[in-house]
Amino acid sequence: MEKLIFSLFLALPLIFTEAHVPGGGFTKLFDFGDSYVDTGNGGRQATSWKKPYGIIFPGKPTGRYSDGRVFTDYIASWMGIRSPIPYRWRKMGKKVQGHGMNFAYGGTGVFDTLVKAPNMTTQINLFQQVLEEKLHTKRDLKSSIALVSLAGNDYAAYLAGNGTIQSLPAFTTSLIRQLSLNMKHIHGMGVRKVAIMAIQPLGCLPQVSALTSYPNCSVTGNSISKFHNQILEKSVQKLNKETKDSVYIKVDIYSAFTAAMKSQEHHPGTSKFKDPLKQCCRGVNSAYSCGDVDKNGAYKYVVCKKPNSAFFWDSVHPTQAGWDAVFSALKSSLHILLG
Ligand SMILES: *[C@@H]1O[C@H](CO)[C@@H](O)[C@H](O)[C@H]1NC(C)=O
Ligand SMILES: *[C@@H]1O[C@H](CO)[C@@H](O)[C@H](O)[C@H]1NC(C)=O
Ligand SMILES: *[C@@H]1O[C@H](CO)[C@@H](O)[C@H](O)[C@H]1NC(C)=O
């Protein structure tokens, strides 16, 4: 599986050239957060382990919430390393741990969410335990990057509870306060750089837009993201002032999603994502989701003919083609991570 990742990226030498500019030399990646970066921590009952997840790469489910590679895979390849193994498989021997470790769990958040899996605080505690087991040394950490994803499960939980739109700003503030503490904690453990993903345009997720504003993105949804990202930006600046060094980097996923979804509009002839807000895999009706089967084993979902032409795989996750486009939009801004 990882060999395949390599052969794909070797076909794109530009990425590797960039990863090896002097001043880089980062050799390990540690992931925290949710399904946008999870590469297999979910248990066998997780959606990410069901067909047709993984249908494009590697051809079967591997615990990734997409038809193929997810953001972690792109960042790891860009660094010139293999994707770090999921925490769940840490006992597989020292050799596989060489590239860091992935502590992210799909469905989770900074706070507890609707999914029963380790929240970010707990994920960081797992990292601490791994360090205590001496699986990674202080020196390893000096050449490490942490990638932290917060893609919106906290907001989903908040709005599903008794959270109101009116009190959302206060919620965002408390969310980012906790997120900042988490980032400081990760850096405090010795990780050299902490890359925090801004939140994507929530109003463009099929789950949101399909209900209210399709074929447009929901303006309210996107304004939640914009506010979140503003507060995040301030908090990252503040953290960097404290460390007197650019330890913390905001990865602008919002702009990258927007660019990836819109970029083709200007080139209708080569349109890759003709209908970017439409998900490729969906339930046969609203009672079902991508990956569902009924009790007789009958498929209760349909998959589009060309996943490569869809930006979204399911109601919240990009396809591999989607992540590819997001990564392309971000690539030039990632140098700052190596500085
Ligand atoms: C994270 O989960 C742990 C264990 O369930 C819990 O004790 C803690 O309060 C949670 N942290 C946050 C910030 O929600
Ligand atoms: C609902 O609101 C009450 C009072 O503001 C608060 O104590 C409680 O934690 C909230 N419940 C949820 C699920 O957010
Ligand atoms: C989508 O946007 C177009 C152009 O702004 C607008 O005319 C249309 O009414 C919008 N559709 C919905 C469902 O909001």
Secondary-structure blueprint:
Layout: H1 2-10, H2 13-19, E1 28-32, H3 71-79, E2 85-86, E3 100-102, H4 120-132, H5 138-142, E4 144-148, H6 153-160, H7 168-188, E5 193-197, H8 206-212, H9 219-243, E6 248-251, H10 253-262, E7 281-283, E8 301-303, H11 320-330, H12 335-338
The structure holds 2-acetamido-2-deoxy-beta-D-glucopyranose (NAG) (3 copies).
Count of DSSP helices? 12
- What fraction of residues sit in β-strands? 5-15%
Distance between the termini: 31 Å
Secondary-structure-based class equals alpha/beta
The CATH superfamily is identified as SGNH hydrolase
Supply the CATH architecture: 3-Layer(aba) Sandwich
| Strand segment count | 8
As for the CATH topology, it is Rossmann fold
Q: What level of helicity do the residues show?
A: 25-40%
CATH class: Alpha Beta
Shape: globular
Total discrete domains: 1
Report mean pLDDT, rounded to a whole number.
89
In spatial order, strands of the major sheet run: 2-3-1-4-5-6
**Major beta sheet summary:** 6 strands, parallel
Radius of gyration: 19 Å
Order of helices and strands: HHEHEEHHEHHEHHEHEEHH
From the structure above, extract its key features:
single chain; 339 residues; alpha/beta; Rossmann fold; six-stranded parallel β-sheet; two-stranded antiparallel sheet; 12 helices; 38% helix; globular; disordered N terminus; binds 2-acetamido-2-deoxy-beta-D-glucopyranose
